[in-house]
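Figure S4 source data
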Amino acid sequence: SIPDGTGRSAKAETEIYVSGNFGTKKTGREEPSVDIRLAKPRYAPGETAEALITTNRKGAPMLVTLEGRGLFEVRVLPQAPANWRWKIRIDEKMGPTAEITAGVWDGVSFVSGGKAIEVPVASKAVKVELSMDKKEYEPGDTAKLTLTTRDAKGRPVAAEAGVAVVDSSIFALAPDATPPLGQTFWGPRPNLVTTTVSAPEEVSGGAYQRAQSGIAPVRRRFEDTAYWNGIYLTGPDGKATATFEIPANLTTWRAVAHATTRDTAVGYATIDFKARRWATLRLAAPRFFTVGDRSEIFGTVDNRTAEARDFRVKLDGYEDRTVNVPANGSAKVSWLVNAPERGRVVLSGTLEPVKGGEELTDRVEQTVPVRGGLVVRAADGGTMARETTVAIPVRKEVDLSTRHVKVEVTAGAAGAARAAAARVISGRFYSVPQAADVLMVATDPKDVREAIAALSRTWQPRGWGWFEDSPVDSAITARVLTALAARRKSLLGNQLEGARNAALARYNEEGVWERKALLAAALVDADAAEGKDRVDEVFKRGLGLSPYARLRLSEALLKLGSPSGARATFEAVAKDASVGDTTASFPVAEGPGWSYGTNAATAAALRVALKLEHPLVPKLVRFLAEASGGEDAEIATALRAYAAGRPESRVGKVVVVVGGKEIPLENSRVDGSAKGEFDVPAAEKLTIRRDEAGEAFYRIETRGEVGMIPDNQKIAILRRLEVLNGGGIWEALERPVRVGEAVRITMVVWGDGTPDALRAVSPIPAGFEVAEAEDVEGGRTDIRDEGVIWYLTNAESPQTLRVVLRAESPGEISLPPAEAAYLRRNGVLGATSGEALKVRG
C-alpha cells in the first residue's frame, strides 16, 4: 500500500501458492452415497442375480427393492452394513427390465441409487422363417413364398404378419428404418415404481440426490414393390403361402416379414432372391413427351455371359441396330424417336443374339405419355345417399380426349365430429378454455362433472381468466358462459346465474367492441334478460368486429327470433368467404381483440347456415370435416349440429357407372374411404353407387389439356430460362443446350389475397432431369414425373421459385407451359406459353 500524489492510499494484492505438509486438512461432513454393482448386466429367467450394495452410512436404515413393471421384492435393513450382497432368483415376469434400488436415511438426508437388470422375455419371441420355391426367377414367373411361424419352443403358432417383397437396391439409398417389433413390445422399459420420502424437501433435497441413467416374354411391369400384405395370417400349423408375379425388374428382391401373436410374441425375418436373364435390354426413355418432340432414346445391352457376343437390337417402327457386347459387359445403341400427336408412344424393344438360343433374348416395353399442352383442373362435390348422378366437371377449353377423372367418397360428418371431440377431450383441463371446450363436447357424464368442477374452482366474481389466479378475460368468460348454458341441466344451484352476472359485469367494464360482441352473444345463449339490449347496442355502435364475432351475433339473432336480421348479417360476412369447388371457409386474419380463427368462424357460419338452409352448407361441412389446426370444440359442435337426425354411415363398396360401364373404387384400409381414377373421353355425367345407407361425401376432380392458354387468367406467372456463361454467370437462354449442361428455370408467381393453398408447376421436358429444386419458406416442394411442384400457403405477394435441370439426351424438345392454380378454386389459375428447346450432343 502506497500513497498517491494527493495523499490518498493505493493498494494492490496477489496470491502465492506454497506446497508442503502443513498438518491434517479439516474436512466437512461427507456426502452420503449408495452404490450398486451387478456381476453381469443381463440375466435369463431361472438364473440367480447377485448384487453388491455399498454405502458410506454404515448402521443407517436401508430400503432395498427389486422393481420395474411392479414391485417384485422388498428388503428393509434396520442397520445397513457397509457392504451387503443380495441374491435374487430371476423370473420372466420381471422382464424385460427390472431395477434394483437402494436408499439410506441418515437422519439428515435421504439418498438412493439404482441399477437396471436386462431380463429377456424368451416366451415372447416368434421364430419367423421365409422360403421361396426357387432361388432365381425370370420376369413374369409366378413366385411362391412360404411363411412359417414358431414359438420360443419351436412349436407352430398362429400369428399375424406383415409381408413385403421389395427391390433390395432401395436399401442402397437408405437402410430399412422399420423398428424391430421385439424392441417395440419387449424392449427396455422405464421403472414404473416410485419411492416417496416423507421427510421435508428442505432436508432431503439438494446436492445429495442422484440421477439414473423362343423370345423371352415382354417385360413391361416395372415395380419397386412386387408384393405387399399387411394382414398375413398363419394357421395353427404356423404356415401361410402367397403367390405373386415377378415384375419386369432384373434385380435382387428382398422379402421382409414382421409377425406377432395374440399374446404379443413377436419376430422378424428376411430372405433375398434374384430375377435375372443372361442378356438384357434396357431402354432409357423420358417420363413423357410433348407433341412435336424428337428425342434420342438409348438402349443398353448387358451381356452376362463369359464371352463377347453380337446382338441384334430392334425398336418397333425404327431401324434395327447390331452391336458387339464384351463378355460380362455392356454396349449402347440409340434411335431418334418422334412424338407427333397426343396420346402415348409405345416403345417395344427386342434383343436377339446373332448366334445363340432363347436364353440370350429379351423383350421390353415402355409406354411414354404424350401431352399436348397446359393441363387444367376442375372439381365438384357434395353429399349423397346410396346413389347420385352428377355432371362431370370440366372447363370448356379442355380437349375431352385428354380428360382424366378422379372420384373419392368419404364418410359423413359424424365421424369427423367424433374425431374433433376426441382431440378436445385428450387436452383435458389444463386451462379454463380447455375445460370449457370439454364441457361443450363431452358425452361421458364423468367428463361433464369434472369440467363443471374445474370451472367452478377457477371462477372469480367477475368472470374467468386463463388459469385459476389469472386476470379475468372477457373472451374466456363468454366462452365459459356459452358452455355452461349448453349444459344447464347438469349444473347445481345458481352456477348459471353467477356466470350470467359475471358476464354482464364484464360487458359493462369491457372497452373493446369485439369482446363486447362475444359477451352479448353468450348472454343470449344463457337466456339473460339483458342479452337482447346488449346485442342491439353492439349492432348500433360496434366497430372492427371479426367475422367470428359477427357470425356469433347472427346466431344470437336467430335465438332472439329475428331470422331476417340473422340472414342479412350472415350474407354480409359471406361476401368475404373463400368459396371453392368443393369447400367453403370464412377466413379470419388479425384485428383488435380478435381471438378466434378461420376454423371457429367457419363452424359458426355452418351453425347459422343450417338454420337458414343456406346453399353453402355442404361446402362448409366438407371444409370442417377436413380441417386441422385447432378450435376443435367449435368444429365438433358445428358438425354435430349438421349430423343430428342424419343416419350414421360407412362408405362401403362403391362403383362408378359411366358410359354404361361399372368401375369399382378401391377402399382404404385406414379410413374406409373409396377412391379411383380413370379416363372419360366423352361422357357428360356419371353415377356413384354405394352398398351402404346414410350420408357420405363425394368429390370429383377432372384434369385435361387445353389447346390454347385460357384468357381469363387471375394468377400472374412469368418464366425465364438461363444457362451459365463462360464467367459462371446465369444469362438468358438464346442458343441450343449441350448434353450435360445445366438450365436454370426461374418462375415468379403472383396470386390474390384470398386465403387458399396454391399449386405451381414447372414441367420437366423430355430428356431432362432435375439437378436441384429450391424449397420455399412455409411451403412444400415435390419432384414428380409431371414436373417440380410447389405448394404455397398463399401468393398475395410475388413468390420466386427456381429449379435447375440437366440435359441428358439430344433432340428437339418442347417445354410445356408453367402453370399455377389455387387448390380450392381450380378456376383461379395462370400459365405461361410453351417454349422450344434444342439439345445438341
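Figure S5 source data
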Amino acid sequence: MLQIRLTQNISSFGSKPGTPVSAILISPVEIDGKIVLPLESDLHGTLAAVGRVGVGFGSETASLDLKWETITVPGGQPQTINALVSELNNSRETVDLQGKIHGIRATATASKIISGFAISAASFDPMSQLFAASASVSAFRIPESEIILPAGTELHLTLHAPLNVSTVFPNPSPALSNPSQVTELTGIVRPLPFRTTTVSPVFESDLVSLLYIGQQDAIERAFAAAGWSASDSLNAQSSFGVMRSVIEDQGYKEGPVSTLLLDGKQPAATFSKSLDTFFKRDHLRIYAQTGTFDGEPLFSSTATHDSGIGIDKKNKRLIHLIDENIDQERSKVIDDLLLTGCVDGVSYLDRPWVPLDAKNATGDKLTTDGRIAIVRMNSCSSPVRADTPAAAAPMVQTKAPLTERVGRDFILYMRDDFLRGNIVYQGYAGTKMLINLRKKPEGPTDPLQPKVLNIAGEEYEVVSRPGASSSKGGLKDAGFSTPSYHLPGVERTYKTRLNFSVSGGYSRFGNSAFSTQNLVYNLDEPPPYGGPFNSANINQLHTGWNISVNSTLDSWKYISNEFGYSYNQAPLTITEVVTGNPLFNGASVVYFDGQVRQFTYNVLIHPTPNGKRFRPYVSIGPDFQLIRLSDSKPSKNAILKFTVKDVGIIVDAYNFGSKPPLEGGGIFQSGLQYGAGFKYQVTPRWFICSDFKETLSPQPNWWKKSLPDLETILGPGVLTVAPGTYQSAGPLRQQRFSAGFGVSF
C-alpha cells in the first residue's frame, strides 16, 4: 500500500475530466528494513471521470475517478504503476473496488432526518412548522454534496502489479549522534511517566510514544504546517460542534479531545487531523516535561488514530474506536513532521518496562513494540506546508457560489421528499428494515466480530467495554471517562454556540381600543320597526397566557440570532351595539377562545460578550403570526399528505388563510417585534432567562372575508345587510412577559 498526499485541489464541482493530478509519497516503503520508496516521491496521474451533483436535478451524489500512472523517486526516472485508490484517510467518502470515490447523499444524513421529524412533529400549526424548519436548518445544516479534496488530502493506493525498485535510500538523520547521548537520554526517559489517566474516575489510558527535543512554539508550528489543527477546549460550545459534526456528517478539524492527564498534569497542546468527518481522525496530546537535553526543553506525547464510532452497550454511550497498532500512528507523526523540514533527526529508545499489550480507558487494545521515538526539532522558522498547492497545480473552484448551493440544497431536499417522503416508499423502507432485522446470517458467525449498526449512512460498532465505567450519554474519544468542564486551576468558561429554551408567562395588549366593523341593516317593514339601522361590532382581544420555545445561535461575540415560536391564548370578545331600531336596540357580547401563534426571527444585541454568565440584550426582528379561534384548525390535503408532504404543508396553510376567520379560517399577517431580556448561565450547560417583547402588527380584520357570505345568507327579502365603515384604532400592540430555562451547547 502507498500512502500519498495530494499537491493540488480537486473538486467534483470545479475539476474537469482529463485534468492532470499529482501527489507525493508521505510514508516511506521499506523492504527488509531498507527504504526503497522514500518520502516525497512524486506520483502523477489523470482525473479520468467526474460525477457532479450540480443543481441537484441529475444526481444526488458526486464521484471522482483518479487514475495513477507514474511514480518518480528523488533523482530517478518516472516508472509506470498500476495502482487504485483504496481509501481516503479520515474521510466520509467511500471507495469502491474499482478505485472510484463516491460522495455522500446529503439528504441521507441525520441532520435531514432530524429536520424531517421536527417539521412532522410540528405539523399541527403552520407557525410551529416554520419555527421547526428554521431552527433545525440553522442548528444542523445540510452537508456539502460535492466531493472536495484540498491540497493535503491523504489517500491510500493499492498496487495491482509489481513495481521494480533497485535503489536504497538512507534513513533520516539520527536525533542522538553517539552512545553517550543515548545513555544520557535513556536515563532521562526511564523515570518519565508513560501512561496517561482519565480525570475522574481514574483509569489508565493511552501510552506515551514520542519525545520531542525543542521549543514548544517550533513544535506547534511544525504540526500546523503538517496539516494538524489545534484542538478546541472541551466545553459546551465545542460539545455542540462535535454533535453538529456527527449529525451533519461534516468535518470538525478543531474538534476537542478528552482530558487525559500525565502524572496529574494537563496537556500543553493537543492536535488532530481529519478531512471532512469527526468519525475518523489522527490525534495526539503533548505534555511538557521537567528538565532539558542539550539545552532544549522536552515534551512527550501520545498518538492514536480514531478509526470509527462505537456504541458501548454496557455503559450505553458513544465512544471513538482506535486502531490498536499505535506504532503505526507514531510513524505517521514522524513522517508528517519530517515533510515540514522542521526535524533535524529521529532516533528510537527501547523501553522494556512498557507493557506491549495494554488497554486504554475505554477497553481498546494498544499494541506496541514499547519503543519511544526521539524527535529533535529545529526552529521551524520556514516550514513546508502540506496544504499549499504546488506552483504548477491548476486553479479549481471547489464550491458553487452561495446562491447556487442554497438552490441546490432546496432541490435536493424537495427531490428527497418526493422520492422518499411518500407513503409508498415509507412502506417499502419499513418492510425492508423488518425483513433485515428478522433475517438470520448465512453460515457460522464469528463471536469475536462486533455487531455493526448503520444509522443515517454511518456505521457504528456495538462493543462491550467492561474495563471502563463512565456517565451515560455524550460522544467521547478513546480514553474518555466522565466529561469535566471545570478542572482544578482552569478558568471555567460559559461560552456557548447554540441555546434551546422554553418559557412561559402572560400576554396582554397595549391597545385601549381595537377595531369596529359597522353593518347597516334594512328591515322591510313599516315604521316604527322598519327601515335602516346600524350594528357596531367591537372586536377586542384580552389578557391571556403564553408559552414559547426559542433556538438561539450565538453567531458573534456580541450578536445572536434567535428563532422563536410562541403560543398565546388570548380571549376574543365581539360586542354588538345596535342603534336606530327600537326592536333591536341594545348591546350583546359573544365570547371566543382566541389564539395568536407567532414565528419570529430576532437579532439579539448583548452589551456583554459571549462567555459571560449574565448576558442582557435588546432584540428586534420580523414577526409572522397566525390569529385564529381555538376551534379553527387547518385541514389536511388527503392526497398531498401521502405524497409530497412539504408541498402539502404550503397548500394547507394557503387554504386555511383563505377561509374567513369567523368561519373556521385564520388570519396570517406580519409585524415587527422588539424587546429586551437576559440570560444567566447557572452552569455551562443550563441557564435561566426572562424577557419582555412587544409585537406591532395590523389590527386583525375578523369580518372582511365574512361580509360577502353574510350578504348572501340574508339576501334580498325582509332583512338585508350591507357593510358599513371599518374603524381601526392603530396597530395591534401585543405584549408578552415570560421567564423560563434552557440548555446550552
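The longest strand covers residues 296-312. The first helix runs from residue 110 to 121.
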